[in-house]
């Protein structure tokens, strides 16, 4: 069979806070993917159990009758109890704090039974080209520089290695109702191992190393030291870490949930590369594909969202380590790769402007809280590079935050504007760059509505609103009259004015617009009417109308197209806005909690249609997308804390102060990617370029033509200033640019109308 991963529906995830470098996940009551030596690299698909007697056998994960518990919310030490008419199987899973080993202490209750361990190696992050063998000391697998060993303290009676779907142990039981095969090895394929345990209780050690001998040594050493010793170290490590966590909530349920969410964020932090926060220890719809990336990669956006959540609950060092990591992984041009492995190697190749702006906001927040300390010099250099990229690229982003469409969107725009102001206010920029950054921020802020706000549309007339913010406006086009091609719907075209999202809420969260602004209120009314989904778990929100990222209507996995489902993290965003608007936000927190897995993991999406029991899909419960999602847990923490402190953790005082009242930009900036065909004749204009150029310009049909050389303006940009007096009598400007960096003439004439102040 072609290899695939296990389901992304995780019960719980865990790791030890020591020198050991393994991360484990549980799903359907068994051990799923285990990651080593970083949280970017899964090494097995799963490790489960078969229970057999004289007249029956079953694979415990398929029974799906189990309970899961942990000692405390912040200690990811899962105990799983599977109940069956013929048996009770209980086991506990932990990572050895000292070694690259996962330990499982198990006990099977029942008469006349045998217990079998069923292991599917996916070494090196793929199920292809693995080799499995029955070893004198246990079950083993190899692939290039990756090796694993499964050792039992009471030993195995026998073992077998086979190819999945043909000669593996599950097929043996399926065909013969017993273990009859004892193949010594299976090489270079999608393989699985089966081992009959000598005892019905004991300890299993699953170890990883770059050689088989190393894996064997680690497993046997861990067993020799003893399970209880590892358990004490594991629990104490987590309890010590959690003592620094600040959570002032009085409600014990919420307090426990915040502590659990903080634990989830910490679990997703790498130890080879401290500060590398991956998006999820899961592969969306993993049981249908052999995706080498999944979500076990770093997105700077998701990581910064988690960094702010850590600040919200006073885990400052995690946020500082994240900032250092982001400084180290910044690209030479100032941006970050769309996503990347924990060692910094890029994976996908898209460019997202918000991912360049958000690290600057994190650095500024650390500075505002007095936590930047010795990082200032490196953070300053990072911010300068990032803001040069923002200034050169914006306001258009090649991809939005959902990694689908190019254009101008409110979320990215808000992050970019706030980052420009923060860079100037926190001393990250020199005087000339700071002046220009504020000019640029003020201009973009003043033009937000001209780019992403529409009025008197069919939607508005149908719902009694005057206008609304759109999800995105395509590059160089206005939102009122343009169209957007939906990437996950086979490029179905939708009018931009009809496409809603929750991106606009960041205008309020970051302090650019007031929650009571009529435009914000109207958009919220539309969003609640069109994107809100009521489920037995509570209210959730879809990313945008016409979204296609989710299971198909019949429950089949997303395969490039599908039906967009509702997201708990968006419930968190809507809840934060509720706090800022003076509403009751508790229902949003309760909904997020109700969507969680057995172990408290928050999913990326929940099912929002009629139940499909055969596929495990129920309204208000997780779908096959990622779970847990770090961003969702971060939103939960931030929502819980903002309910108490009222101010979003991402908000910066300088940004709020600058835009507390409507602000007219002193200078109008023009660049091709910033749409706008009319200028205010009463204010100066700055014609911009990303390199030195000569402006060939005339007015009113190319009258009074002249050539004007550009001058540096700041952040690597160049421009020509046209003052108000020279513009006052012109009805239009016509111009083109000749770049001096080898591009020569740009090959297009531009025409701008001069009008009265907007």
Descriptive report:
30% of the residues lie in helices and 24% in strands. The chain folds into three domains: 12-240, Beta-galactosidase, Chain A, domain 5 (Distorted Sandwich); 244-658, Alpha/alpha barrel (Glycosyltransferase); 677-755, Sandwich (Immunoglobulin-like). The protein is of the alpha+beta class and 758 residues long. The strands form eight sheets. Strands 6-7-8-9-17-13-12-11-15 form a nine-stranded antiparallel beta sheet, with helices on one face. It has 20 helices and 34 strands. The longest helix has 18 residues, at 376-393. The chain is elongated, with a radius of gyration of 28 Å. Helix 6 (300-312) runs antiparallel to helix 7 and helix 6 packs parallel to helix 8.
Quick synopsis:
The chain is of the alpha+beta class. It is built from 20 helices and 34 strands.
What labels describe this entry?
single chain, 758 residues, alpha+beta, Beta-galactosidase, Chain A, domain 5, Glycosyltransferase, Immunoglobulin-like, 3 domains, nine-stranded antiparallel beta sheet, six-stranded mixed beta sheet, 20 helices, 34 strands, 30% helix
């Amino acid at each position: 069979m072609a290899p695939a991963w296990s389901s992304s529906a995780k019960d719980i995830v865990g790791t030890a806070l020591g020198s050991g470098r393994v991360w484990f996940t549980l799903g359907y009551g068994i051990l799923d993917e285990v990651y080593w030596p970083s949280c970017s690299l899964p090494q097995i698909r799963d490790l489960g159990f078969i229970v057999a007697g004289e007249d029956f056998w079953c694979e415990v994960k398929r029974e799906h009758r189990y309970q899961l518990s942990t000692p405390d919310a912040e200690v990811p030490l899962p105990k799983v109890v599977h109940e069956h008419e013929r048996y009770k199987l209980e086991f506990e899973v932990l990572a050895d704090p000292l070694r690259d080993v996962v330990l499982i202490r198990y006990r099977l209750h029942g008469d006349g039974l045998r217990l079998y361990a069923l292991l599917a190696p996916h070494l090196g992050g793929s199920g292809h080209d693995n080799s499995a063998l029955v070893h004198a000391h246990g079950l083993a697998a190899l692939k290039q520089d990756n090796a694993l060993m499964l050792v039992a303290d009471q030993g195995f009676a026998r073992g077998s290695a086979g190819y999945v779907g043909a000669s593996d142990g599950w097929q043996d039981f399926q065909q013969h109702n017993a273990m009859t095969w004892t193949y010594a090895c299976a090489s270079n394929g999608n393989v699985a191992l089966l081992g009959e345990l000598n005892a019905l209780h004991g300890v299993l050690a699953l170890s990883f190393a770059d050689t088989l001998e190393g894996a064997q040594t680690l497993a046997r050493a861990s067993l020799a030291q003893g399970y209880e010793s590892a358990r004490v170290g594991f629990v104490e490590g987590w309890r010590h870490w959690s003592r620094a966590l600040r959570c002032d909530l009085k409600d014990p349920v919420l307090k426990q949930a915040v502590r659990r969410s903080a634990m989830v964020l910490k679990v997703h932090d790498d130890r080879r590369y401290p500060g590398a926060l991956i998006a999820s220890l899961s592969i969306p719809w993993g049981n249908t594909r052999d995706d080498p990336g999944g979500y076990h990669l770093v997105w700077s956006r998701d990581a910064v969202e988690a960094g702010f959540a850590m600040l919200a609950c006073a885990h400052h060092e995690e946020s500082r380590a994240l900032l250092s990591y982001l400084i180290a992984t910044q690209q030479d041009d100032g941006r970050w790769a769309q996503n990347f492995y924990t060692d910094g190697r890029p994976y996908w190749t898209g460019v997202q402007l918000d991912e360049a702006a958000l690290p600057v906001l994190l650095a500024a927040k650390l500075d505002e809280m007095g936590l930047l300390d010795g990082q200032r010099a490196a953070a300053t250099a990072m911010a300068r590079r990032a803001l040069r990229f923002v200034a050169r690229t914006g306001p258009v982003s090649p991809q939005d935050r959902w990694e689908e469409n190019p254009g101008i969107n409110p979320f990215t725009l808000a992050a970019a504007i706030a980052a420009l102001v923060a860079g100037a206010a926190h001393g990250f920029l020199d005087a000339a760059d700071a002046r220009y950054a504020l000019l640029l921020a003020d201009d973009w802020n003043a033009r937000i509505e001209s780019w992403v706000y529409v009025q008197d549309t069919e939607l508005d007339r149908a719902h009694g609103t005057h206008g609304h913010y759109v999800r995105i406006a395509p590059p160089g086009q206005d939102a009122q009259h343009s169209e957007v091609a939906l990437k996950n719907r086979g490029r179905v075209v939708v009018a931009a004015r009809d496409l809603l999202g929750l991106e606009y809420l960041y205008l309020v969260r970051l302090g650019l617009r007031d929650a009571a602004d009529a435009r914000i209120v109207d958009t919220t009314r539309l969003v609640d009417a069109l994107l809100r989904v009521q489920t037995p778990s509570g209210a959730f929100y879809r990313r945008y109308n016409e979204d296609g990222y989710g299971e198909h209507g019949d429950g089949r996995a997303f395969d490039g197209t599908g039906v967009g489902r509702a997201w708990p993290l968006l419930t968190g965003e809507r809840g934060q806005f509720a706090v800022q608007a003076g509403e009751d936000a508790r229902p949003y927190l309760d909904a997020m909690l109700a969507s969680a897995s057995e172990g408290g993991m928050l999913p990326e999406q929940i099912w929002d249609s009629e139940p499909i029991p055969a596929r495990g899909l129920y309204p208000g419960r997780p779908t096959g997308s990622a779970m847990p999602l770090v961003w969702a847990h971060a939103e939960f923490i931030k929502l819980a804390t903002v309910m108490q402190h009222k101010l979003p953790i991402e908000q910066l005082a300088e940004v709020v102060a600058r835009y507390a009242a409507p602000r007219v930009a002193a200078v109008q900036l023009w660049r091709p990617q910033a749409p706008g065909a009319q200028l205010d004749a009463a204010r100066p204009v700055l014609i911009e370029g990303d390199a030195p150029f000569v402006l060939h310009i005339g007015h009113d049909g190319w009258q009074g033509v002249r050539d004007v050389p550009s001058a540096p303006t700041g952040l690597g940009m160049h421009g020509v200033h046209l003052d108000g007096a020279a513009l006052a009598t012109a009805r239009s400007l016509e111009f083109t640019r000749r770049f001096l960096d080898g591009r020569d003439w740009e090959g297009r004439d531009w025409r701008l109308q001069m009008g009265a102040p907007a």
